[in-house]
Amino acid sequence: MKIVVIDDDPTGSQTVHSCPLLLRWDQAALRQGLRHPSPLMFVLANTRALTPEAAASRNRDIVDALVVAMAAEGLQDHDLLLVSRGDSTLRGHGVLEPQVLAQAWEKHFAALHATLHVPAFFEGGRTTVNGVHLLHGEPVHTTAFAQDRLFGYGTSDLAEWLEEKSAGQIAADAVVRIPLALLEAERSADLLECLEALEHNQSVVVDATCPEQLRELGVAIRRLQGRKRFLFRSAASFLNGLVDSGPLPLGPQPLDARGLVGLRRRDLHGQPLPGLVVVGSHVTLADQQLKSLLASERCRGIELPVARIARVLEGGSPDFLLHDLEGEWRSQLERALEAGLTPVLFSSRGELEFGAGAAAAARRLRFGMELASLMARLLAGVAPRLGYLISKGGITTGTLLVEGLGLEAVQLEGQLLPGLSLVRPNAGPSDPDPLPVITFPGNLGEPGTLTEAWRWLEGL
Known about the structure:
Layout: E1 2-7, E2 19-22, H1 27-35, E3 40-44, H2 52-72, E4 80-85, H3 96-108, E5 114-118, E6 126-129, E7 132-135, E8 138-139, H4 158-165, E9 176-178, H5 188-196, E10 202-206, H6 211-224, E11 230-234, H7 237-244, H8 257-261, E12 275-279, H9 284-294, E13 299-304, H10 306-314, H11 318-338, E14 342-347, H12 358-382, E15 388-392, H13 394-404, E16 409-417, E17 420-424, E18 437-440, H14 449-458
Parallel strand pairs: 1-3, 1-4, 2-3, 4-11, 5-10, 5-11, 9-10, 12-14, 12-15, 13-14, 15-18
Antiparallel strand pairs: 2-16, 6-7, 7-8, 16-17, 17-18
């Protein structure tokens, strides 16, 4: 059975290893991914960077392409589990995407019995208890993540959150809850009975405080495969429960942290090539991590002033003016590399004001993508000289992989630190020594985690 994960940014593989992350979804790419020996396959939708309408369209396109690829590979719907991977702090199109995926899937196959929402992410301190989602034990709606300009919310009760985010289409009192007690090994028969009773694509929220509980859920889902049809909206930890309950559990990753660091590229004389750190995320935690990293004398900050960039984009002759600015920033990157320092390319802190409403939200997303594309162009200019890349922020990372490095797929090698993955393209004749990339979620870690990752890669 293949677990296909449609990921709303490129960081959702942060608890697994040895599997592909597809950066496109044409037939050749999807068929190659379905043939990969790993039980997991990720498809980067990057929908957190899109408006609701564009996100819905992209999800439909991916499902339509996936169905054709499945047919070409002789796969039936019961040969596959479909997961919509989203943010463990509940940002993103967390209700829209599974709704659209369900509609697109049911166009080709039988109706679904339920959509299970499983946002627990243990490596990041995200748990769910009594239907309430927590971050380090605190209701997640009390944290800064709930104040997100685009994806904010007012409750940590997942049933109420579903009602809020669906504008009342999903009634909180109609949501089925799977409590911790039902996920104990001795209650496996009761869990099966609960899952078997689900009908008409009911919405289900799942409690979880440890990996064993999600493994029990995975066992039950596998036992019902072929009889019940489920869709999942989850964070990363649930993927381990699905895989480890099957015949091909992941086991330890082939390379430990030192082995992953050893993937850093070297020059013809065997000397390690310099690295680059890019920070696009604007959550408070990212600000703290950036400040910590820039305190090192071995790093040189290169700031992209977002207000100035916005004025250039909105004014006359933006291409001409931006080209001159890009030339200056590229020169700063090159001077830092020549000086033996690690350049840290970051967008200025704080967020621009775009007003309220759907039109303002669309402008905010559009500017975010233009800023990420600018960073990608700057990366492309220096990429051949780099030994590694650390990319902070999901939207930024997706754009750097696709536009900056021109990649179609990467292989997930494993985690350098908990929840912090290293990916790289497969080596080949045209690129025998591919660039390792640390995909660093905006909401992950402590204030010193970015510095810790950089020190690992620098051998400090």
